[in-house]
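WARN  no MSA supplied for this record, continuing single-sequence
INFO  ligand: NAP
INFO  echoing inputs
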Amino acid sequence: MMKRILITGASRGIGRAIAQKLAAPDVTLLLHGRDTVALAETCKLIRSNCANVVKLIHDLATEKGVMDLISQVGSEPLNVLVNNAGIAVVKPFREITLEEWNQTVGVNVTAPFLLMQSFAGQMPPGSSIVNILSVAAKTAFPNWSAYCMSKFALEGLSQSIRHELREHCIRVINIYPAATNTEIWDDVTGDWPREKMISAEQVGDTVAYALSRPADVAIENITLSNAAGNL
Ligand SMILES: NC(=O)c1ccc[n+]([C@@H]2O[C@H](COP(=O)([O-])OP(=O)(O)OC[C@H]3O[C@@H](n4cnc5c(N)ncnc54)[C@H](OP(=O)(O)O)[C@@H]3O)[C@@H](O)[C@H]2O)c1
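INFO  complex generated
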């Protein structure tokens, strides 16, 4: 049977890698991003493996953007929802502007909340919600206060929702990557050696593995570390 999979933030990085791993002849991939050029590149990489690809261009920092995404996805049920889009504002907490704070909450917390709320009701038993959290959902780091706030929030949200969705046999799979070599680090000031990071492909592979388990088995929480030690 044809499966419908929505991935947010699929235009680059971890989201793109997840799209590449989940592309299959029996899958319709609904791929979200804002950057049309980068999203088109993701589509190009997977098109030959995938039954159908739909591009969704919306800003998830705003409620309107999220609502437009939801209406474009439509009422046909999803089998997998991957909440991956995320931003990292990294600076001393006294320098964080209210706009940066609101953007972080919007993209990293409110968007996943609204997407899970709108789609879970239609998802058939055996479906899955994948949330890309971070080691920063469990551990605090100086200058990462807004980011840690958002990931700790998503952690509580998704764990509670996991319990609510058990009676519908919908799995909530939480992924906690350590530093991963993507463009998210381009704007972070400081020295962040890329060779100490894990690859986006490894995160994509892990998501694909968790999803490939039989529907009655939930791999609920996966932390991915660099075997030689994280940053
Ligand atoms: N890289 C790491 O070290 C790491 C570690 C742990 C967890 N994570 C998490 O993994 C997820 C993906 O991160 P990444 O490293 O792949 O980052 P990335 O390369 O910067 O990609 C971020 C993605 O999120 C989308 N996005 C950002 N702001 C958005 C907005 N306002 N509206 C809609 N989409 C937006 C981007 O879309 P456009 O570019 O098209 O706007 C892009 O597709 C995030 O949730 C991040 O917190 C990353």
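Residues 9, 11-15, 33-35, 38, 59-61, 84-87, 107, 132, 134, 177, 179-180, 182-184 surround NAP (CB under 6 Å).
INFO  checksum written, moving to next record
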